Structures
1.
Amino acid sequence: MQSGERRTTLADVAAEAGVSVALASIVMRGAAGAGAATRERVLEVAQRLGYQPDSRARLLRSGRTRLLGVVFDVRHPFHTDLLTGLYDAAGAVGYELTLSAVTPRRDERTAIDGLLQDRCEALILFSPRSRTADLAALAARLPVVAMMRTVRQRAVDVVRTDDTRGSELAVDHLVELGHRHIVHLDGGTLPGAAERRRGYQDAMKRHGLAGLIRVIPGGSGEDDGARAAERLLPEPPTAVTVFNDLSATGLLDVLRGHGHPVPGGGGPGFHGGISVVGYDDSSFSRLAHINLTTVAQDVEALAAGAVRRAVARIEGTDVEHREVVIEPRLIVRGTSGPAVPR
Amino acid sequence: MQSGERRTTLADVAAEAGVSVALASIVMRGAAGAGAATRERVLEVAQRLGYQPDSRARLLRSGRTRLLGVVFDVRHPFHTDLLTGLYDAAGAVGYELTLSAVTPRRDERTAIDGLLQDRCEALILFSPRSRTADLAALAARLPVVAMMRTVRQRAVDVVRTDDTRGSELAVDHLVELGHRHIVHLDGGTLPGAAERRRGYQDAMKRHGLAGLIRVIPGGSGEDDGARAAERLLPEPPTAVTVFNDLSATGLLDVLRGHGHPVPGGGGPGFHGGISVVGYDDSSFSRLAHINLTTVAQDVEALAAGAVRRAVARIEGTDVEHREVVIEPRLIVRGTSGPAVPR
DNA sequence: ACCCGACTCTAGAACGTTCTAGTCGGATGT
DNA sequence: ACATCCGACTAGAACGTTCTAGAGTCGGGT
C-alpha cells in the first residue's frame, strides 16, 4: 500500500505551505530566522503530511552525525543494564546512540564495521575482546572508548570500574566475617580478570593471609563456575570470590548440590557454610531467589564517564585523564555470612 | 588527531587511481562494467587510503536501505535471545538490522521515532505496548511486524508463539503429574497474557477441572510474582502456571520462604510440593540454580518468521498469511513434579 | 528623503554516493 | 570497407537535507 508513494519530503512540506525549502528546514530544526505565523503554518503542514526528517540526508549535508556507536554483547546481562544508563547520558548531551550487537554468531569485528558505515563520531565498546593493536588502528580513525577493561594504548580511552579495588572489597568483607580460607575463582584472560585477581591477592596479603592465596581457573559462564566447584570440593574453603555473577551461580549450585550449605540457603538463623561473592550485580543476581552478595559496578557513573569521554574527544575539548576509573561498591546480600571455625 | 582531516571519500580514491568517481563506485560495489586491471588497482587504492563507504550517502541516492528496524526492551532477557536469531535471519537474506532499545526511561514511541529517521524499510517490534490504533497508523507508512502479541489490524503483521497452546502444554504436563488444583498467575494486559490465560482455562475445562479454575492477577516482574504468592498462601494449590519466568521466580521464592517445598528444591528423592511452570525459557531460567520448568518460544522460528514477513512486505511478494504462529515447546526442568494427594 | 539594521525569506551550492545516458575505441559480421 | 555491437569508461543529474550568501521589506533615526 505504501510501497508506491514516495515518502513525504521537506520539499513537499515547503510547497504545500508555500515557502522555500530552506525556510521549511529552518522551521523543522527550530533554528532562528522564521516568522511566528509561518513557523506555525509549516509545522501544521508537516504534521498533516506526516513528515519525518531523513536523518541520512541531514547528516550527509551537515557532516556531523551526533551519533555514538555502541557495541554490546547480548549474552552479557550487565551490558543491557549499561545500555539504559548510556541512553540517558547520551540524551543529556544531545547525542544519539546507534547499537550493534555481538552474538554467538556475530563477532566484534562485524559489529564494529556496521557502526563505521553509519558514520558515528565515536565508538563505545563494552568489554572489547579485540587485540590492542586492532583497537589502536581503529582509534586512528575515530575516538574509541573501551569499557570495563584496560587498554595500554594512548589513543584509546578507557572507562572502567576499579576492579582491583572491587576484589579487595569482597575479600575485606569476607575477612571481616571471620573467613581466612578464601579462594578466588578466576576469569582467565577475560576483560577485567587480571585486575580482579590482583585485587584478591593484594587484599589477602594485606590481611596477612598470603600463605592461603588460592586461585582456581574459571571463566565467564555458569558451567565454568560449576566445573571449578568440582575442583574445589576435595578441600573446600570457607569462602570464594568469583570473577562474575554467572560463574558464581554455577558454583553455588554445585556446592549446594553436594551438601555444602551457603548462607541464605539454610533458612533464618543459620550460620556457617561456604560464602560466595560475585561480581557485576547483574540483574539476575538481584533476584530474591539467587540473592547473591556481589561487587556492583556503578552503571550511571560508567555510562556518564564513557559519554563524557567520547564527546570530549569529538569536540576536541580534551582536559581530563585518558582513563576514567569508577569506584565499585559491595552489595551484601544473602550468600555471605560469618565463618564457622574449621 | 583525526579531527582535522576529512575522511577519505570515493572521489579521493577515484582521483588517486586515475579513474572517474562513477567507475570507482562500480568497482566498490562489485557491479559489472569495469576491467579486471582497473578493478584491482581501484581496490588497492581504496585499501591503502582506508576508504570506508558512507552508507548514508549510498542509501540516500539509491533509495533502498535494506535496513530492518528492531525495537527491543533491555529489561526483557528473552528479547536479547531473540536478537541473536534475528541477526542470523536478516543476514541470510541480505538485510541489516538497526536496533533501538526501550529502557525504563526511554519509551516505545521514542525508540520507534529514532528508527523512522534512519529510514529503515520495515519495523520489527518486540512485544509492543503501543495501542492498536498507533500501530495501524505506523503501518500505513511502512511494513510493521509485531512480535509476541496479537494485533487485530489488517495492516500489521504478527509473528508470535501460539501462547494459548503454550499454556495448554503447561497444564497438560501438570495434570499428567497428577495435579488438579492448578492456579494461573496472570499477566493482566501485557502482550500475550490474554492468550496464556485462555489456554489455561481451555485446558482446565478439557481435563474436567473447570470448577477448579483460579486466576490470580500478576505481572511481568519478580515482585509481581512475590506479591501474588502472598495471596496464594492461605489456600495453596498444588501447582501454578505463571505468565512469565521472572514472575515465576518471584513466586518460587516466597513459596520456599514459607516452607512450601518446590520439586527440585527438596533434594533428590523428594516428592510433592508445589509445582511451578514458567513461560519464555529466558536465559536465566536455564541456570541450574533456578532450573525452571517453562514453556519455550522457538527463537529461531520466530526470528525467521519475522524477517520473512518483513521482507515479503518490502519486496511486495506477499503470499503467506498475515499472522505467523509458532508452536511452543515445554521444557521440563526441576520445578515440576508429581502431585501429592491433599 | 535617505540610510541602516533587523527581520523574514529565498536561490543555489554542497554533502558522498548511485544511476542514467551517454562517448570512445576496437573487434565482429557481411 | 562499412555499419554494428560490445565492453570500458565518464559526465552530470539525482537523492533530501543544511548552509551560505544575499534579496526584500519595514520601521525608525538622522
2.
Amino acid sequence: MSDVKELTIGALARAAGVNVETVRYYERRQLLDAPPRAQSGYRTYGPSDVDRLQFVRRAKDLGFTLQEIGELLHGDGLGSTTDVAAAAQAKLLTLDHEVQSLMEQRCRLRQLLQICDHGDGQDCVALIFETAPRIPASPTPEIP
Amino acid sequence: MSDVKELTIGALARAAGVNVETVRYYERRQLLDAPPRAQSGYRTYGPSDVDRLQFVRRAKDLGFTLQEIGELLHGDGLGSTTDVAAAAQAKLLTLDHEVQSLMEQRCRLRQLLQICDHGDGQDCVALIFETAPRIPASPTPEIP
DNA sequence: CTTGACTCCGTACCTAGGTACGGGGCGTAC
DNA sequence: GTACGCCCCGTACCTAGGTACGGAGTCAAG
C-alpha cells in the first residue's frame, strides 16, 4: 500500500503519450528529475512524474520552448505564479508577432495569386522576379 | 561594351543582400547555376544571376522552402505560370493552417493568463498541470 | 531454459537553412 | 614586393526537438 504505482520508463512514456527516447532526452535536458533506480538499473517513476511530464508537454503545446520550460521549472523563484504569468505574457507577444508575420506573407501571396489570375499568365512569374515585397499586410489585426 | 558587368561572388552577394557562403550554398542546392570561372577559378556572374538570386530570396520570403523553390525552378514545366500559381495556392493553405494553429495557442495562453489574473495566484501553475488544452480557438477566422 | 519484450548506455543521425573555419591562391595598390 | 582583401575548397558546426542504432543486461511467461 505504500508505493501504489511504480512505473517503468515505458509505462511513463505511454501514460504521457510520448516516446521512451523523449523521456530520456527530457531527463538529459533536466526537464525531468533523474529518478531512483531499481537494482537492475531500471528507472522507477511515480505518479508525480507523470504530472511533471504532462506539464512539460502542455507547456510545449502552449508554445514554450524546452529551454523556457526548464527556466520555469528550475528558475530562481522555483516556478512561481508570477514567473509563469510573465512568461505567458511574453509568449503572447512573440506569438502575435509571428501571426502578423504570417499574415503579411499571406497577403503578399494573395496579391501574387490575384495578379496571376487576372493577368495574361506570362507576367506572373516575372512578378516574383521583379516586385519588391513591401506590402504592409492588412492594417494590423489589433487583437489584444 | 560586350560584357557590361561581371560580378564576383562577393559583389553578387552584396547586390542581393546575402552572405557569400549563402550563394555557394544555393549553388550546392542547385538553386543557382554553376557560373563560368575566370582563369583564376573565381566565379563570374552576370546581371541575370542577380535576378535569379533575388527570385530565390523573394520566394523564400513568400514562405516557400528551398526545396520547393528548387522544384519550381527546375520542375518538369520549367517553372511555368500554372506551377507557380498552384504552388502559391497550396502555400496559402498551409499558411492558413499555421495561422490557425498559432491562434489556438494564443487563445489557450490568454485563457491561462485570465485565470492567473483573476484567481488567487497559487492555482495558476496548477492549471497548466491539470487543464487539458482542448479550446477550439475563436470559431476559425474564415479568411478566404 | 528459452524466448520475447523491455531496459540500459552512448553516440550518431535527422530537418532547414545556413554560418564558420582553416589552409591556400589571386589581385591590386602603395 | 608586399600587405590587404577577396576568393577557392571541403568540412564541421549551429539551433530545436527529438529519433534511431547497436550491443548488452533484465524480467516474466511458457
